[in-house]
Structures are given as structure tokens and as C-alpha cells.
Amino acid sequence: MTPTAAGSTADTTPDALLIRGARPYGEEAADVLVQDGLIAAVGHDLEAPDGAEVIDAEGCVLLPGLVDLHTHLREPGGEEAETVETGTRAAARGGFTAVHAMANTTPVADTAGVVEQVLQRGEDAAWCAVVPIGAVTVGLGGERLAELDAMARSRARVRVFSDDGKCVSDPVLMRRALEYVKTFDGVIAQHAQDPRLTEGAQMHEGRVSAELGLTGWPSVAEESIIARDVLLAEHVGSRLHVCHLSTAGSVEIIRWAKQRGVDVTAEVTPHHLLLTDDEARGYDAVYKVNPPLRTRADVEAVRAGLADGTIDIVATDHAPHPHDAKDREWDTAAFGMTGLETALGIVQHTMVDTGALTWRDVARVLSETPARIARDTDQGRPLEAGEVANLLVWDPRPSAEVDPEAHASRGRNSPVAGRSLPGANRLTLLGGRPTVRDTQLVAR
Amino acid sequence: MKHLISIGDLDRASAIELLDTSSRMVATQERQMRKLPTLVGTTVVNLFMEDSTRTRISFEAAAKRLSADVINFSAKGSSISKGESLKDTALTLRAMGADAVVVRAPSSGAAHKLAHSGWIDVPIINAGDGTHQHPTQALLDTFTLRRHLGGEQKQGECSGSVDGSGLDGLHVVVVGDIMHSRVARSNVQLMTLLGAHVTLVAPPSLVPVGADVWPCDVLYDLDEAIALQPDAVMMLRVQRERMLGGGYFPSAAEYTRRLQLTTERAHRLPEHAIVMHPGPMNRGFEIAGGVADGRRSVIVEQVAAGVSVRMAVLFHLLASNAREES
Amino acid sequence: MTADRPGTTAPGSEKTVLSGDDISRSLVRIAHEIIETGHGADDLVLLGIPHRGVPLASRIARTIAESEGTGRDPESLAGSLDITLYRDDLRRSPARLPHPTHIPAGGIDGKIVVLVDDVLYSGRTVRAALDALSAIGRPAVVRLAVLVDRGHRELPIRADHVGKNLPTSRSERVGVQLAETDGLDAVVISGAAAGGADAEATEVQR
Asked: Which of A1, A313, A338, C74 might form a disulfide with C65, Cβ 3.0–4.6 angstroms?
């Protein structure tokens, strides 16, 4: 059988599933029995009930299903790049059981109607939970607040609001948003980018941009907004989440804010953990991303920040684009990279294999904390009896070359194409139902 | 050498070879019959996505003197967006059987993209891409410098052969909008590759962040640079619309006071020093008219050198195996 | 000169067909022929075709200048004529870089121009040299002197002065070595180690 990524093998969900010998959180091996969509038991030498399928997972790591707080599913409006169906297939292949769909679609997810539509599409696709993120401002215009309360009270129960792709740069508007979402325990996820300091910006401002003649995106344009926002959050006593933090200075500011007791969380993307602005030298726009790839020192700083807890989570900022949007001159190409199907491989490569994070830490930064920030109820839960069986069995031993053509995402713009990454998705369970077996999607 | 995208494509030996070949081309242009049969039967496309009459006609003259057929393709004003236009245009040119493409584009990296995208597989010559590189301009500037000041001579005389020599020991000052200048980037690389010392002079707001690692000095004061008694001063064009609108300096008057090469400043240069300008000039802004027309000025000679240097580049890319042998 | 090589050279082997003394004698004879044919040296210009035609032209010019009664300075007699940019086969067979062309001070208009080259083979180099010459001026007469004529002409061209006729097979390679360029004088013929393209290279890829 040579199943393709885009296709899927048919499968009937067994009545019960016994995962034998996997190591929860990468620690001591145990057996996990899944029954009726729940974790029925965790222990040693569990008996397989009649009709149960037994999966030998010796040497694998068992994690709560991954949760991505920052995904661009592109639907509605950008179906050439991705749909809810293809994006959630990609998520499942990456080991995710939930993704948070960013609001910068067409139309913008700034009303209850649009977020409910996205929720419905996710439920129909059923490869993972799709949790809509609402826009902070109407049409991402940065001028007046969207109806945040209506989105929060819709069937989509939106708790995360973001104008991602654009910064809520007006300090008054940002203050109001931070205050307003307190009503329903929401959070503003800020794309920190001072618009005036980044007019026409193409890549990180530094030695490489000076040489290549590409307009610079200075670190300070991110750091100044983060500094302002943590002070605003402190002032109004609200919850702030900082999207895709990318600079050493940003890590310092978050560290300082947390010491002051500001209720702030921060995320870093897999690509900012791995790649630097040197990638721009070939003018291959697959490396064009916002915020841009930074310097080696920044990469080291965000890794250290993630390791010491200053940075709370890893989120993909999965941003698929059609081929033509990338196969062109750098300054006319689109920003963004795919990430769902390579996120855990990059995290293992950069953080686990280097000893900076344990697998328990990985469960925290890629599942538990993102679920907590978004107030997801059934995601990022403990690996205990009685919990919903959203699980990932990850084999850290094999490694494989990344081939974007084999990805389930419509986007082929992977920045790690051709690189070898460790790990393989042995099994992903969504509410007890396998969505992926041995890296291949499993149809319902 | 398959393409000429950036001065980074050259090493010292190949740069000197190009300059030496340019000298051969100059000699052919002094003959009764200037047209050479060298590239007969080949088609050179001038793909200009950005206005530049001077560079285009220079390349056109170079190709025609080598008997190539020339197609001028101007994509400016096209309703298609820039990126689609470059790719689609490349596919069109491939279908038409172009043997080389000379490309001028507003996007930094456009020439590199054209050379390495797989859209078209012929030599690509960068005639200026955004704020990145303009290698043939640097070659013609360097050719002119070497002709006047290269080898052993330092008297501003064009005597003797400078074949095989670089710019060793020369000090060149480049003045103006460094940040937006592909000419400055290419010249810093080429002149230092050939052994010259380069000092850039610009207001700090027009020096790119990250230029600290460039192999040159940066000064903010033209008088300080002139006090160093350089062998040559190159004035860059000030693009008023970009600079004043961008707020890079307060006013034209302030720029002129601080950075114009005035007659008085030119007077303080050493006897043998030459004055260069890649053109087109803003007389009375970055350079005083008297200096542009004065005895030190080699500005018109630069234009003439441009044709010969571009003939040399076309010859090296289309008819020579010089680089494959080494 | 008569042909004295009935056979061909075996692949990989090498044979000296002209020694240093042979070369000197040939050049002196060519010099005298040139003076005789041109009724003196007054309007004479010798243009060597780079690479090895240039020292050959200088040597012939020296002999002519030393001859009694010519009263010419070898500097004013000899120059060089690069033909690289006038070749008609550049696309098929790329060239090395062009060499300088040096025309003696009096120019070539109305002069007796003798083109000097080391080996005459297909004739294409000479054709290119005639084109190059016509771009520079209008000589009264153009003659051709070569050290070795190895046959296999592809154009209606013949030499006026020949050091040695050397019948060859196309697969052989004729190598002219001169003290000025190679450290010693010799003409060597070798069997084709790298095939026919190499033999072509001796003349075309200068």
C-alpha cells in the first residue's frame, strides 16, 4: 500500500483501543486504554477488552493532542491557498487535535455569522477541532472594535481575538479591546508591528537586508509595541497574548513583564526557532514571512525564552499560499510559511534533541498552555482516565526529508522543504477516533 | 560565469579580465569600422521594467556594435502586477528565443530570480535591481578610475597599459544616498575587490543599518572626507522625491550645504583627483555645475566607457569560455 | 618545401618536425622573400596574429630591419592584429579573451600588409583577420606568411610565404612552441590523444 498524504485510508474505528508501551510525556512507559472516546485507563499490563485493537507503541512518546493557537485556514475567501478541510487534514498529520483559525479571511471573521460558519466547516471536516478567532476591529481596519461580545456569545464561543496580519497599533483602541474582553475572559492576541516603522518592510533589518537592498523590518518595530501592550495590559488588568514573538529584545520585555506580574503570554513559531535572515540571500520568497526571520542571536534568545518559560507556547502561524504568490520577485511575494505538518519535528529538532525541553515541556507548550490561553475545554488535558481521548503517539526515532508535495495542506511554501526532520506521527486520536495512523490520514 | 547579477559573482581575476576586455572593446571603437561581427545571429533582449533611457541605450549600443539583434521590451505601465509580469515576460522571451536578457527592475533580487527561477535558461545581465546591485555601472566606474589612476600612474594621464592591474592603493570617496543606491553597493564591492579603499559619505539617516560590516569607512561629513585627499570622488544622484518625502533630511538647502561637491570643495582635492557621477545629475544639488564640467570631471568618459564595458560583459557571457577554463 | 611525411603519427606519440634552427632558417628565408616580393621594405607592415604570430612577426621584422639597405626600425615594421572579435564561430566554439591589437604608427592605409601566423589550417583565422583589417583601414596589398601550412583548407585561402608544408591528418595536433611564449623553439606533431576537436583547437581556439 502506498497511501498518499492528500488521500486517506479507510478505517473503522474500533470499539476500544489499547496503546501499549508508549511513554506518557516521554516518561515511564505505560498502557493506555481508550474506550467510547475517553481515556478509560492508564496503567501497566492492561488487559485488552474483547474486540479492542492493540497498538504496539513501544519507544513512542504519548502526548495530549497538539493545540495550535495560530492557524490560517484561509476559508472563507482564500480557498486557492487552503480550505478548512485541507488545513485540518494538515493539522491532523502534524499531530494537532485543535487549531485556532485566524480571522483574516474574506470576509473577515469579525461577526458572529462568519465565526459560526468557520466553526461549522470545522465540524464538517472533523479532522480536528476548529476554534475560530475573532477580529479585534471591524474588517481588521484598526479603527473601531468588532462586535466582540456577539462572537463570544455565538455558538463558536470565541475567546481569542486578533487582527493578526495587522497590528492594533492605535493605543486607545488596543486599551479598549483589552478592557472589553474581560467581560467573557477573552484575550487579545496582538500581532506586534509598528506600522510606521515597517512601511514597505521586506525582511529583518540588519546586515543581510543592507546587502540585499531589501527594506528592513527592524526589531524595534516589534519590541516597542510589545512594551506598550504589556504596560497597557498591566494598567487595565487584562489578559494579553503576544503572537509570534521573534526577537531577543521581545523575550527580554516579556520576561520583565512577567516579573512585574503582568498577565501576558507569548508564542514563538517553529520557523523562528530554526531559521535566520541568511535564508533571504537566494531571494527565494518561501522565506518571506511576517515577522521576518531574524538573526542567529535572536534564534538563540527565543529558544532560551521557550526553555525557561518566558515564552509560553509554540504556535505555527501556518500560512499557506498559492504557488504564484511565492514564485515571484521577493518584494511582490506574499508573507507566510506553512507549519502544521512540520511543527513538532522542528520543536523536537531544536528543543528536545538539544536538551532544552523535555517531552513534558512539549506537552505544555504545544498543547496544555495554548488550550488554557484559549479556554478550550476538551484540549490539552491530562493523560488520565476519564479525559477525552485527544492524543498523539509520536515516534521520535525516525527522521525523514520534508517534501511539501506530500503535504496535506494546499500550501507548498514550507521553509523546511528538503531538510531532514526527526519524528513521525504514529497515531492521532480525536475524541478516541484515529485521524492519523503511521503518518497517513484515516478517513472516517 | 553564466550570469552577471552581482559583483559577488566576480573574483579579482575575472573582474580584471572584464576590464581588460573592455579596453580591447574601447580600441575597436576607435577604428574606422566600429561594428564587430562577434555576436551575429544572437538576440539580446533589453527587459526594462523601470525607466532608464541611459542604461538601456548603452546596452543597446553595446549589443548592436557586436552585431547582435536587440529587442527592447518595456514592461512599465503594464496593468499586470509586477511579479506576474516578470514571470510571464520571461516565459514569453524564452518562447521567442532570446539568447541573453538584460534586465532592469524595481525589485531587489529580480535579476537573481530571473536567473534562478527556471523560467528562462539564458545568461541574465543585471542592469540594476531595486536597491541591490548595478554591476555594469560599477564596472564602468572602475574602468574609468583604472584608466586614469590605475597601475603606476597617478597623474591623471591615460598613458600606458593598465592591463592586468586593479585599483590597489587608491582611495575613492562615494557621496550621497547610500541606503537606496545599488551603484554604491556594487562599487563598494568591486572597488575593494580590486584593492581600493572606499569611504562612503552620507547623512546618517541614509546609511543602511547593517552597513557596519561593509569593507569600507563611513563618514557623515564631506569636508572630513576631502581632507583625507582621496584620488577620486563619486557623487551619487539625490532622488529628491524619495528623499524629501521620506524625511531622510530636512531640506534640499541643508543637503547642499553639507554634501554638495562645490567648486570650493573640489578645489581642495589633490591635483590628480578625478570627479565621477553615474548620472543623471542634479546640477546645483549634489554637484555644482562648474565641477561637473570642470577639468577633474570624467563624467562624459564614464558614459563612453559604459558601452565598451557592456560589450565586454556581453562577449564574456555569450562568446567566451574564459571562466570555464579556469 | 616538399612533403616528407608519408605516414601519420600514432595516437599519443609526439615528434619534433622543426627544430629551433629550422625555425630560424625558415623565418630568415620568409623575410627575404617578403623583401623581394615587395621590392623593398618601405611600405611594409607585418601584423602578427596572436598568440604566436606576434613574436614571429617581430622576428621577421628584425631580420628585415637588419638587412642591408632597408633602413627600417623593427618597431615601426611589426604589430599585432587580434581576430577574436571577428571570428564567425564564436557561438559554436567559445573564444578566449581578446588580445590587444597594435598597429604601427604609420597605420595600414596604402601599405603592404603581411599577416603572420604560426599554423595555417582551415583558413578561418585568416578570413577573420581580413575582416579585422578592413575595420582598421585599407591596405594596398595583403599577404600571408605562416610558419607551418598543415593543409585541410576550408576556405579559398593560401599563404604567400610558408616556412614548412606539413601534411597532416585531421586527428593530429600541430604544436608550435616559441621561446617568447613557451621557452624554446620547436614545432611538434602529436597523435590525437583527445580526438579531432583538439586538432581544430590549435588553430581556432587561440
From this structure: C74
Burial class (CB in 10 A: 0-12, 13-18, 19+), C27: buried
Cell digits of residue A54 = 492493540
| CB proximity list for B241: less than 8 A, separation 6 or greater | none
The pLDDT of residue B84 is 55
What is residue B323's predicted lDDT score, i.e. its pLDDT? 39
Q: Distance between CA atoms of A254 and A404, rounded to whole angstroms?
A: 34
Domain with CATH 3.20.20.140 in chain A: 65-374
| Strand-pair partners of A436 | A428, A441
Q: How many CA within 13 A on the CB side of residue C146?
A: 25
**Which secondary-structure segment (H or E) carries C35?**
helix C20-37
pLDDT digits (tens, 9 = 90+) for B190-217: 999 999 999 999 999 999 999 999 999 9
Rounded to whole angstroms, how far apart are CA atoms B169 and A240? 58
> What band does A354 get if pLDDT is binned at 50, 70 and 90?
very high
Axis crossing angle, helix B135-149 with helix B299-318, rounded to the nearest 10:
120
Fold of A65-374: TIM Barrel (3.20.20)
Q: Does domain C20-169 have CATH number 3.40.50.2020?
A: yes
Distances (CA, A) of A228 to A179, A193, A220, A292, B262: 15, 11, 12, 21, 47
Q: Could A205 and B210 be called an inter-chain contact, meaning their C-beta atoms sit closer than 8 Å? A: yes
Q: Do A218 and B209 touch (CB under 8 A)?
A: yes
Mean pLDDT in chain A? 96
Split at pLDDT 50, 70, 90, the class of C74 is confident
- What residue has cell string 614548412? C164
Asked casually if ipTM beats, i.e. exceeds, 0.90, the reply is yes
Give the pLDDT confidence score for residue A376 in this predicted structure.
96
The answer to whether A331 faces chain B, any CB pair under 8 Å, is yes
A397 shares contact with chain B (CB less than 8 Å): no
Q: Name the domain count of chain B.
A: 2
Residue type present at position B291: V
pLDDT of A166-197, one tens digit each?
999 999 999 999 999 999 999 999 999 999 99
Q: What mean pLDDT is predicted for residues A319-338?
A: 95
Asked if the bond preceding B277 is cis, omega within 30° of 0, the reply is no
Q: Is the pLDDT of residue C201 over 80?
A: no
Instruction: Using DSSP, state whether A39 is helix, strand or coil.
Output: strand
In this structure, the answer to whether residues B142 and B124 fall within a common structural domain is: no
Give dist(CA C22, CA C176) in Å, integer: 12
Structural element, H or E, at residue A395? strand A391-401
Percent pLDDT > 70 in chain A is 97
Q: How far is A284 from chain B (nearest CA, A)?
A: 8
Confidence check: pLDDT of C203 > 50: no
Q: B287 in helix, strand or coil?
A: strand
Name the DSSP letter for residue A31. Answer: E
Residue A349 and residue A420 in contact, taking contact as beta carbons nearer than 8 Å = no
The pLDDT tens digits for B27-75 are 999 888 899 999 999 999 999 988 888 999 999 999 999 999 999 988 6
- Taken as a whole, chain B contains a residue count of 326
How sure is the predictor about C192, in pLDDT bands with cuts at 50, 70 and 90?
low
Q: Which CATH number fits domain A9-62+385-443: 3.40.50.2300, 2.30.40.10, 3.30.465.10, 3.30.530.20?
A: 2.30.40.10
Q: Binding site for carbamoyl phosphate: which residues of B?
A: 54-55, 104, 134, 137, 279-280
Give the whole-number percent of chain B exceeding pLDDT 90: 75
Element (DSSP H or E) covering residue B114: helix B110-116
B150: containing domain? 135-303
| Residue A439: all three cell numbers together | 503518518
Cβ pair C100:B325 closer than 8 A: no
Calpha distance B144→B306 (Å, rounded)? 9
Q: Which of C86, C96, C98 lies nearest to residue B37, judging by beta carbons?
A: C86
- Chain centroid, CA A240 distance in Å: 17
